[in-house]
Amino acid sequence: xxxxxxxxxxxxxxxxxxxxxxxxxxxxxxxxxxxxxxxxxxxxxxxxxxxxxxxxxxxxxxxxxxxxxxxxxxxxxxxxxxxxxxxxxxxxxxxxxxxxxxxxxxxxxxxxxxxxxxxxxxxxxxxxxxxxxx
Length: 134
Fold this sequence. Notes:
Order of helices and strands: HEHHEHHH
Structural class: mainly alpha
Largest sheet: 2 strands, parallel
Number of domains: 2
Oligomer: single chain
Low-confidence stretches: 110-123, 128-134
């Protein structure tokens, strides 16, 4: 591959990455405006902010069961733009505590066993619980 081909490939990859994140930002603005009862700016509805191919953004997104979970749980402003990332990207600690309160005691016990390990993030604990239930 010569230098020109390499530069073209890099530019195309960069453009794809930018398009993904621009679509994610538009979906985020729409989602947060609706959540906060704020008028949404019109630019978020432009078709340029929709991806031509589905984007599954989560650890282990190559697994069919994770994709099914993301398809079911991702809010509509994201799915309309072909983005599948689940419904926890903007959850704060109070919302997570409320969701945790509704989990069965057996699963809560697992969470308490895993929690002392600081290298595990909330996402990895959630993923562990998700696959434990599956």
